[in-house]
Amino acid sequence: MTRFAVPPGLAAAVRRREGSAGEAWLRELPEVAAAACARWRCRIAGAPLHGETALVLPVERGGQAAALKISFPRPRCAEEAAALEHFDGAGVVRLLAVSADRAALLLERVGPATLETVRAEEATEIAGELARRLAVPAPAGTRSLASTPGRGSRSWNNWQHQGCCRRARWTGHAN
């Protein structure tokens, strides 16, 4: 399978955030995905997922499960690719390939387990271990999470609001 329907939620979010540039990107998205699949010898192997400005397609390449992430092009794409290259799979998904404009990433596919699928105590231990592992200086040419206005506190507040873990458990395991 090489074709997919752009998820309506992605289309709505991109139009809202990016306006006419987003509309143009959405029209090109199926061709961009097909070209990336051809370049990296992948085939789409599942339903698309998405965030606010990126599409993620489960793909297979040579029998290996992977994920093709295509983001609306912006400077942050280069920072994401640089960070993934820097960590090289240590605590994050491994970057398998990246497009020249750094808006398309071929990533190691993980799952289906998430922190929501394990006991709260185990999720807290995993999150704490990841926090320790990822608490390193940002790679050259990228912004740190701490330097992004409101980003760190907003992520923490979202985590708390979703009830994924209690603050006391989180901080107790992150030390």
Q: What fraction of residues sit in β-strands?
A: 15-25%
Main sheet attributes: strand count, strand direction, barrel closure = 6 strands, antiparallel
Can you give the helix content as a percent range?
Answer: 40-55%
Radius of gyration: 17 Å
Mean pLDDT: 81
Q: Which class do the helix and strand fractions yield? A: alpha+beta
Please write the string of helix (H) and strand (E) elements. Answer: HEEEEHEEHHH
Number of strands: 6
Net shape: globular
Instruction: List unreliable stretches of 5+ residues.
Output: 152-175
Number of helices: 5
What gap, in angstroms, lies between the N and C termini?
46 Å
Question: How would you summarize this macromolecular structure in one to three sentences?
Answer:
This protein has 175 residues and is an alpha+beta fold. Helices cover 45% and strands 17% of the residues. The protein contains five helices and six strands, in the order αββββαββααα.
Topology:
Layout: H1 8-39, E1 43-44, E2 49-50, E3 54-61, E4 64-71, H2 75-87, E5 95-98, E6 104-108, H3 120-134, H4 151-161, H5 167-174
Antiparallel strand pairs: 1-3, 2-3, 3-4, 4-6, 5-6
Helix pairs in contact: 3-5
